[in-house]
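Sample entry follows:

:::
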Amino acid sequence: MNRRKNMQQINIRKVEKTDSNQIINLMKKLSVQTKYMLRELDEVNDDILEQEKRIEGMLSDPRTLYLVAVADTTVIGMIISSSSALSRIKHISDIIIGVDRAYWSIGVGSKLMEALIKWAEDIGLKRLTLEVVEDNIKAIKLYEKYDFKIEGTKIADHFIGNDTYLNTIVMGKILDANIL
């Protein structure tokens, strides 16, 4: 696979309602490709109408961004950022990201992060947060590349089966240095 050529064919865009089936397929794929996602395969909701409603809700919320990475016509990655309307925390947005393993290490995550950070700055968010399983080194390096800092650890909160629990790292990025 020519990685450089494939990266040129990958576009980042807002999710569309018509992506629902592909989003479900991506979520299913991610659930078996890695132990780092929250859902097991049998926990992925495969109801297309519910997925369409979820997407519609996110698209209508100005404090939520849902982007997909598309290779040719296939959704191969996604990033979601959402913030609360509550006054005390509306300056913060939480991030979820996932990329099909076949497209790891070619810059898909970087393109998604860059688009999200630009959006967050454009709408005046002050802080981004995310959680990552501590042995997901590739993801941690991606977040550190974009100046996310480790802020804490949640001990034994990510169960992966066989009596195995992993720690989760809480990371944050300050977008506006004036709040410090």
Q: What stands out?
A: Confidence is low (pLDDT under 50) at residues 1-5. The longest helix spans residues 108-122.
